[in-house]
Amino acid sequence: LQMLEQQVVGGEQAQNKDLQEKHKRRKKYADERRLQLLAALQEANEDSSERALLNVYDSIQEEVRAKSKMLEKVQEKLQAAETEIKDLQLEFGLEKMDYLSTIRRQERDLMLCQQLLDQVQSLVRRDCNYSNLEKIRRESVWDEESGCWKIPEPVIQKTHLP
């Protein structure tokens, strides 16, 4: 039963020694490569600052070089951060100016519309419901779906004398 199981587990090539050796070599190579990558990552993550903290230097020149490299890296990071801050401030300033110009333009358009309404209101017949702007504003409803105002239809109210 064990012999049959050994033949079945692993498929047709279970007894192939060359294939087993090839598999072991690939696995060994993959493990070595993984260890190399882990070591490279650890080395990249560990700054020379750890070495500077441990004071493991052969000479003062080596310590100066290590601390200089560390200082250069910090200065590069600082420079990059300052550049990013300036870019963001510039972008914010441009957006702010754009918003302000949009607001000013909309205020001018609103003033034009208000002046037009004031001029035209005197021309509207008194028996029309559009003669009273405040009443129209009260009766108007904002429609969220269409994104516009629903204004009451104009109606002329005829008064009949008895």
Question: Your description of this structure?
Answer:
The model has no long low-confidence stretch (mean pLDDT 82). This protein starts with a helix and ends in a 12-residue tail after the last strand. The chain has a domain at 18-124. Helix 3 (48-54) crosses helix 4. A hairpin with a 4-residue loop joins strand 1 (141-143) and strand 2 (148-150). It has a two-stranded antiparallel sheet. Helices cover 69% and strands 4% of the residues. It is built from five helices and two strands; from the N terminus they run H-H-H-H-H-E-E. It has 162 residues and is mainly alpha-helical. It has helices at 2-8, 17-45, 48-54, 60-121, 133-139, and strands at 141-143, 148-150.
Q: State the major sheet.
A: 2 strands, antiparallel
- Global mean pLDDT: 82
Strands of the widest sheet, in order across it, are 1-2
Residue share in helix? 55-70%
Sketch the topology as an H/E string, one letter per element: HHHHHEE
Low-confidence stretches: none
Taken from the alpha-carbon principal axes, the silhouette is: elongated
Q: How far do the termini sit from each other? A: 116 Å
* Tally of alpha and pi helices: 5
Structural class: mainly alpha
**How many strands appear in the DSSP assignment?**
2
Share of residues in strands: under 5%
Radius of gyration equals 41 Å
State the main characteristics.
KIF17 protein; single chain; 2 strands; mainly alpha; coiled coil; 162 residues; two-stranded antiparallel ribbon; 4% strand; 5 helices
Compile the SSE list and pairings.
Blueprint: H1 2-8, H2 17-45, H3 48-54, H4 60-121, H5 133-139, E1 141-143, E2 148-150
Antiparallel strand pairs: 1-2
